[in-house]
# Entry
Amino acid sequence: QCSTAMATMVETGGFVLVGGPGSGKSGALVGLAQSLRSSGQDVLFFAVQDLEARSLGSLRQELGIVHEISD
# Structure
């Protein structure tokens, strides 16, 4: 049910997921990513602490993404 709710939020524009250590954030996101991939959608999954980008433009450049990233 959590993946279904998150998938709906992704389809309607996105979301921010917060929670304490060990609360299941990563597991929920992995489940969502697997569900989206199995339905043929592209998924980009990364940990923000591994990035230096401070804006959407610099994020595109750092990841080598050609398409616009929506906010």
Notes: The chain has a mean pLDDT of 82. The two ends are 25 Å apart (CA to CA). Residues 8 and 41 are 14 Å apart (CA to CA).
